[in-house]
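Reproducibility note. Readers wishing to regenerate the assembly model reported in the main text can use the exact inputs given here. Chain order matters: entities are listed in the order in which they were concatenated for prediction.
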Amino acid sequence: MEGARGCRMMLVTRPDYDPGTKYLSSWSQILIEEARAKGIEVLDLPGTKATKSEFEGRLKKKQPSLVVLNGHGNEDCVTGQEGKPLVESKVNAEILSSSVTYAVSCQSAARLGREVGGYLNTAYIGYEKKFSILHSHGYFKRPSEDPLAKPFMDFSNHIVRSLLKGHTVEESVRRAKEVGETHLRSLETSLSDPDIQMAAAFLSRDISCLVAHGDTVKCIIY
Amino acid sequence: MNDSKTDQQKLSDEEIRSLVVARLSVLSPDTYVSIGSDGSFSRDELIARVQAGDEIGKEIEDIQLEWLRSWKARAAAV
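Running the prediction on these inputs yields the following structure tokens for the assembly.
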């Protein structure tokens, strides 16, 4: 199958050592299948492969146009398996230059994202505050089926879906926020369910702190 | 003066804490909140964090107040 024009490759890091990362890893598995169905080559770094050496090696060798980072983080870094840093401000942030990066990680857009966005022809999408989700007991082996976490998954995954459709970075952020807002309106109708009300509160925070830095008119498919 | 400042003046820290604990206490025991690298917390663990007033507890309070304010704004706009 011929690959989508302009998008040679997508790299995805998927640590999976605690409930939060297991959920993000499962959500990205869906995106990987969708990307491959579009003919896009995917460099998948699951579990113990989500290390700095693997990450840097693949990035330098293959130069993917889209990088999806799942994992814990802070204002200065995003981590891989066991919370070990993959990319850090003032250390190796330049490795993300010329790509579009989406980091599903806490706070990294605050400093790391601004630094990455400063490179030419580069964009960074991420969260300025903590990224939180609600989930239910009993779904650890099938996180993508957890109904309580689904609004968070749909919102977050829509960034990548939109980029893979050829939308710009800023358009993809706007569309993902619309998906999140649609879920919020739906959740608001369930006033009698405290779990859903709580999910709405955390989803609202995630939507509000999603931002993009750098070349926000960049597309990965054109 | 914005709504945020007005709300803070009307509610003491203890009142905010009680309000958030009341909202948390009606969650299902099977519901967890994953807050970044801080971990996943059950209903009872969330309540304990809010009552202790630690960093996670304050984060939860902040999210709850932000949500209640935005909900109030949305309802007023309808």
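We highlight two features of this model. Chain B touches chain A through 25 residues (CB under 8 Å). Chain B has four helices and two strands.
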